[in-house]
Amino acid sequence: MSLHHVPPAAHDRDVRRAWWSIALFAPSLVAAFVIGEGLLAAMGHIDDPSPPVATALMAGLPATLVFALPTLLVWHLGHRAQGHGHPEGRTPVIVALVIAGGFLALNLVGLLG
């Protein structure tokens, strides 16, 4: 059965799932914190409030990627809904991109500031 024959309710479900997937940012935030702090500790910067920039990037990049993982799921579901005539699938994608981008911007400001 091709996707063109899937009932419209299934595509509405993609939009709802995209919105619900935004809730995955909560556990991904915890995981990112654990990974970032764990990597800093492994590199010998347990209580260092301002580690060297290279060290902070080596710990921060994997943490940021883990935090941003829900964006991929939201994008997939939202894009699939849009492809089947539900333009409202775009909104959760924009929200997820703003959340992930904001997290990245806050971490970069903290690194540079």
From TrEMBL:
Highest taxon, organism lineage: Bacteria
Keywords: Membrane, Transmembrane, Transmembrane helix
Transmembrane parts of this sequence: 20-41, 53-73, 93-112
Protein name: Uncharacterized protein
Classification lineage: Bacteria, Bacillati, Actinomycetota, Actinomycetes, Propionibacteriales
